[in-house]
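Practice problem: predict the structure.
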Amino acid sequence: MNWKSLRIKKGSLKLDEMSVIEFCFYTQGRKGTFFLQDHLLLIVKTGVYTVRFGDQEYTMRSNEMMFIHKSIGVEYEKAGEPDSDYILDYMMFFLNEKIVDEFLTFAGFKPIYLVNDVVPITVFPINDRIGSYIESLKPYFENPDEVKEGLVRVKLMELLFHIADSNDRLLHQMMQPISKDRGSIAKIMEENFSNPVSLNDLAYLSGRSLATFKRDFQAVYNTPPLKWVRNRRLDKAKELLAETALSVTDICFSTGFENIAHFSKVFKERFGLPPSEFRRQLRLKEEA
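Answer:
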């Protein structure tokens, strides 16, 4: 298959009915947010992928990879570069505790726990072996439903061997435990960010005091709760402007904002255009 002739190509390989390897190849930029239940290893062959964890920003370019520790929430922005026809070509590997433990047992590695030494995000170059490994996976995405789960497991083991050989520090990061309570913070925030709730309400829903809630929230998102809520509401508003016919007023109130003028102001600060103009420009691009 001539991958360069494709403008958009996506696919995933599954293990235990869950997507564990995802492939993307296209020329469109994207922005968004996600909370990771599992470790994520993101490998960029071509393009630019930026991740923000609170006020910290990490950028990968061609032939680089990023490890994002599980149980944190991040913002992302991805796009191609002008000198490569704006092509964005990357793969994502979701590594849960089960697959990491299987690898440790299979490879004979003993877990090493680094107290208070969890690094949320790490960026480093890929070597020739990992680059060849990525190319070896691409044929599987032509007919992903025909790929046996046993083979997917073997390919994940192969990846982890390459990681262990090239960056044992990264392997140690995968072994570090994270409090399961972090998941409850993310679930509560996703379920309630568009509701008219206060920080005290969110702390109560999480079963924490306000001080403990703020501390645990900072560990997950590395940013103050109110700032995260506002940005999450704006991201949702942007999505609704692009994908629905709802009025700007309806979108304002449905995403938790209580004042249209304030909503328009903060939307423009974040995305460069007020909501109505953002939608108009988007429609013009679609019609072009």
